[in-house]
Amino acid sequence: MINWTPEPIAFAIGPLAVHWYGVMYAIGLAATYLVVEREALRRGLDTTLLVNGFIVIAFAALVGGRAYHVIDQWAVYKDDLVAIVLPPYSGLGVYGGIATGFVAGILYVRWKRQPFLTWADAAAPGLLVMQAIARWGNFFNQELYGPPTTLPWGIAIQCANRTETWACPAGSDPAATLGQHFVPLFLYESISGLVGAIVLLLLARRARSLRPGDLALLFFVWYGTTRFLLEPLRSNNWTFDGLPTASIISALAVAGAIVLLAWRHRPGAAANDQGTPDRPGTPSPGAPPVAMPPLPEPAPEPLDPSG
């Protein structure tokens, strides 16, 4: 088992402490940018818009992710509201970031008169790459873990970072682990993100029946399924009527994405669609070519009366 308990601070510059959580998110954002840029180039998109768009969407996702986390862990912040906006940040909620980032992306792309669904497909693998890398920030913070386990990859959690469900006995040393190990949920999400990104990238290159927006919908299916399966293993999380809120959102996201995929690929759908939502009038992938009306034949020249 893994007995090493990492320090959350990567390094310090004078009084400023740089946390591993922020470092991993910064690395994740950089990797995501590279993936999205490459996928955008493959699709012939205008990548000169990517830098500003990335900043706008990343900021919106940060705000939404932080808001979701604060609601999730309101018991921690209700008596210290300043901690909501001041570093060091201890968490971001993925679904909050997806929601606000998605809205910001729609507004930005529409403002720039770009095809949103095509951009969403380019971004989908990048989001899973972000998930694969950034989740390691949770490891350094000793968070996002499940119940006690005897699995060989179980991780030690210090008493200071235990949730109420698995708290150490009163009077225990905050730095002690008491020889206990826990399920590394962060690792499961990281592996799922990496595998999911590879799957989406392969589909983008090999699947012939994909339509604009399909990869984005598959992202929701992949991530939503992962989150739905892992969320019940967490403790002290946001619940609604006794059910984990993230599980409810995940189930709705997966079901909605599957229904949309089935509807978009129903028999005859490609033939009936005259264009994509991004580019009206453009035939959908797989649709038969539109027959052009025959050009009128030129009128015969009049005979010369002079002979």
Structure write-up:
Helix 1 (20-42) packs antiparallel against helix 5 (116-134), helix 5 (116-134) runs antiparallel to helix 7 and helix 7 packs antiparallel against helix 8 (214-230). This protein has one domain (9-163, 174-265). The protein has 307 residues and is mainly alpha-helical. The protein contains ten helices and four strands, in the order ββααααααααββαα. The radius of gyration is 25 Å and the shape is globular. Strand 3 (239-240) and strand 4 form a beta hairpin. The strands form two sheets. Strands 1-2 form a two-stranded antiparallel ribbon. The chain has helices spanning 20-42, 50-72, 74-77, 94-111, 116-134, 136-140, 185-206, 214-230, 245-264, 269-272, and strands at 9-13, 16-19, 239-240, 243-244. Helix content is 50%, strand content 4%. The model is unreliable at 274-292 (pLDDT under 50).
The radius of gyration is 25 Å
Give the count of structural domains.
1
- The overall pLDDT, averaged over residues, is 85
N-to-C span: 107 Å
| Low-pLDDT regions | 274-292
Number of helices: 10
Query: Biggest sheet, open or closed, and with what strands and sense?
Result: 2 strands, antiparallel
What is the 3D form?
A: globular
| Major beta sheet, strand line-up | 1-2
User: How many β strands by DSSP?
Assistant: 4
- Helix/strand-derived category reads mainly alpha
Helix content range of the residues, please? 40-55%
The amount of beta strand, in percent, is under 5%
Which labels suit this protein?
mainly alpha, two-stranded antiparallel sheet, two-stranded antiparallel ribbon, 10 helices
